[in-house]
TrEMBL record:
<dbReference type="InterPro" id="IPR033138">
    <property type="entry name" value="Cu_oxidase_CS"/>
</dbReference>
<feature type="domain" description="Plastocyanin-like">
    <location>
        <begin position="166"/>
        <end position="315"/>
    </location>
</feature>
<dbReference type="InterPro" id="IPR017761">
    <property type="entry name" value="Laccase"/>
</dbReference>
<dbReference type="InterPro" id="IPR011707">
    <property type="entry name" value="Cu-oxidase-like_N"/>
</dbReference>
<dbReference type="InterPro" id="IPR034285">
    <property type="entry name" value="CuRO_2_LCC"/>
</dbReference>
<keyword id="KW-0186">Copper</keyword>
<dbReference type="Pfam" id="PF07732">
    <property type="entry name" value="Cu-oxidase_3"/>
</dbReference>
<dbReference type="Pfam" id="PF07731">
    <property type="entry name" value="Cu-oxidase_2"/>
</dbReference>
<dbReference type="InterPro" id="IPR002355">
    <property type="entry name" value="Cu_oxidase_Cu_BS"/>
</dbReference>
<keyword id="KW-0439">Lignin degradation</keyword>
<keyword id="KW-0677">Repeat</keyword>
<dbReference type="GO" id="GO:0016491">
    <property type="term" value="F:oxidoreductase activity"/>
</dbReference>
<protein>
    <recommendedName>
        <fullName>Laccase</fullName>
        <ecNumber>1.10.3.2</ecNumber>
    </recommendedName>
</protein>
<dbReference type="InterPro" id="IPR001117">
    <property type="entry name" value="Cu-oxidase_2nd"/>
</dbReference>
<keyword id="KW-0560">Oxidoreductase</keyword>
<keyword id="KW-0325">Glycoprotein</keyword>
<dbReference type="GO" id="GO:0046274">
    <property type="term" value="P:lignin catabolic process"/>
</dbReference>
Length: 565
């Protein structure tokens, strides 16, 4: 009897141990909840020999990096102590059925007014990599921005050799003057506002600028080790080239999607885009400049000064003068086109490229610069911009609220699938008939339908490169080209196997880009040029994706603390 009793006791203890082990295991892999407090506050910051008050998050410029893991829930309480209304966009996060957490002011929410708070509550599902966050109202993202680092799930490796270390590198722009005052002045005159006075790397312009020795970012590396650089272009209006003197980079990810690795001596990165690269510290130990400078292949004024940071080997004294990298020429169109052609989705069983092969809805949007009447402006007109000849008018309440509560008169869903008139889009510059129609007009999309959107640059006033960002989705860039899109010939050249998957696409100067996505995320999703100048001029619209049939395929109810207008 005693033996049986002992055996039963041992068996019970063993079962309890197994249960505890399984419980611990389940706790370990269970998604975590990450909480952040963002205090939006004004702080004096000194750059280029003088100080000015800027809007910051937690007094930091750039703001704090948000760290999370794939599968986590993230709660970010944004408290607005600044004089401006505020909203923050979590750029590249899909926010499934949860547009309330997306952030663009008057699109998915009314802004957070001074003295108020709002909790952005979202899950990170099926995404890992580098994204970023920024203010999405006025031009406040000039100083209100930071990185988002999403680590893979526990025990899930990178699809490339594990780096020995990693660094976040965020590019930005700096103005001597108050940015909002600069924009107001430009708008009052009907002209572009003054361009920035410097570019920055992690908020610092580097030692090629006056009073900037201490305003230089430096990252220390050890001989023989590999480093992952998580690079974000948070600049407002400039596509940027980036290089490290004496070191190649291996591109492994764009916009939080793994790519087929390729090696390059320089990167091109548009506003809104992110790029992860591996850099091996295998050169003679020393100090090497990292440098960033704009790409602009049309004669439009641009802040063309070079910002620098330092790639510094351990134990090398700061007295050693760094060497500068050779960047592509500012107008090197060939480099830009060939670089983007090298971008390919990884497309493995673990990370497939689920490109829509059948298209339910074909859209063709033309980009146009133009004019609108302005009695107080120089010449009685102001510059504007349009998609399919429609300059978007921002509403006075959130479009998502209007959609969810079926509010009448806020927007129309008759945005045209193609421009009102076909013409030689990229021929000689067109300077007549530049006036556009205006309206808050959206494009309605059936849930789970597949969409192909061709974005065509035009020579209305001038051709120009435009980075377009779609909220709520990733898309596949199945084709790009120079000149006019030819619907009878160009689709035959599409890459439908491993095209790059991203959330922001650069439409080439005087050319076109074709993207495909599945409209499986119900809600109202902003689509706009990520050049802040053009967004402000009306180069934007939004998609209304209808609810699906399932109970988890409908827009979830709004949170109780959603700001009111």
């Amino acid at each position: 009897m005693k033996t049986n009793h002992t055996f039963t006791l041992v068996k019970s203890v063993f079962i309890i141990c197994i249960f505890m082990f399984v419980s611990l295991l389940s706790v370990e892999v269970k998604a975590a909840t990450k909480k952040y407090q963002f205090n939006v506050e004004v702080k004096n910051v000194s750059r280029l020999c003088h100080a000015k008050p800027i809007v910051t998050v937690n007094g930091r410029f750039p703001g704090p990096t948000v760290y999370a893991r794939e599968g986590d829930r993230v709660l970010i309480n944004v408290s607005n102590h600044a004089q401006y209304n505020m909203s923050i966009h979590w750029h590249g996060l899909k926010q499934y059925a949860n547009g309330w957490a997306d952030g663009p002011a008057y699109i998915t929410q009314c802004p957070i007014q001074t003295g108020n708070s709002y909790v952005y509550d979202f899950n990170i599902t099926g995404q890992r990599g580098t994204l970023w966050w920024h203010a999405h109202i006025l031009w406040l993202r000039a100083t209100v921005y930071g990185a988002i680092v999403i680590l893979p799930k526990q025990s899930v490796p990178f699809p490339f050799p594990r780096p020995d270390g990693e660094h976040v590198i965020v590019f930005g722009e700096w103005w001597h003057a108050d940015v909002e005052a600069v924009v107001k002045q430009g708008n009052a005159l009907g002209l572009p506002p003054n361009m920035s006075d410097a570019h920055t790397i992690n908020g610092k312009p580097g030692p090629l600028f006056p009073c900037s020795e201490k305003h230089t970012f430096a990252m220390e590396v050890e001989q023989g080790k590999k480093y992952l650089l998580r690079i974000v272009n948070a600049a407002l209006n400039d596509e940027l080239f980036f290089a490290i003197a004496g070191h190649n980079m291996t591109v492994v990810e764009i916009d939080a999607v793994y790519t087929k690795p390729f090696t390059t001596n320089a990167l091109l990165i548009a506003p809104g885009q992110t790029t992860n690269v591996i850099v091996s510290a295998i050169q003679t130990p020393g100090r090497y400049f990292m440098a960033v400078r704009p790409f602009q292949d049309v004669p439009i004024p641009v802040d063309n000064k070079t910002a620098t940071a330092i790639f510094q080997y351990k134990n090398i004294p700061a007295t050693v003068i760094p060497t500068l990298p050779v960047l592509p020429l500012p107008n090197d169109t060939n480099f830009a086109l060939s670089y983007n052609q090298k971008l390919r989705s990884l497309n493995t069983p673990n990370f497939p490229a689920n490109v829509p092969l059948k298209v339910d809805r074909n859209l063709f949007f033309t980009i146009g610069l133009g004019k609108s009447d302005c009695a107080t402006c120089l010449n009685g007109t102001r510059l504007s911009a349009s998609l399919n000849n429609i300059t978007f008018v921002m509403p006075e309440t959130g479009l998502l609220q209007a959609h969810y509560f079926n509010m009448k008169g806020v927007f129309r869903t008759d945005f045209p699938d193609k421009p009102p008139k076909a013409f030689n889009y990229t021929g000689a510059p067109l300077t007549a008939n530049l006036f556009t129609s205006k309206g808050t007009r959206l494009s309605k999309i059936v849930f789970n339908s597949t969409v192909e959107l061709v974005i065509q640059d035009t020579n209305l006033l001038s051709v120009e490169s435009h980075p377009f960002h779609l909220h709520g989705f990733n898309f596949f860039v199945v084709g790009t080209g120079i000149g006019n899109f030819d619907s009878s010939k160009d689709p035959a050249k599409y890459n439908l196997v491993d095209p790059p998957e991203r959330n922001t696409v650069g439409v080439p100067t005087g050319g076109w880009a074709a993207i495909r996505f599945r409209a499986d995320n119900p809600g109202v999703w902003f689509f706009h040029c990520h050049l802040e100048l053009h967004t402000g001029w009306g180069l934007k619209t939004a998609f209304v994706v209808e609810d699906g049939p399932g109970k988890d395929q409908v827009v979830r109810p709004p949170p109780k603390d959603l700001p009111s207008c």
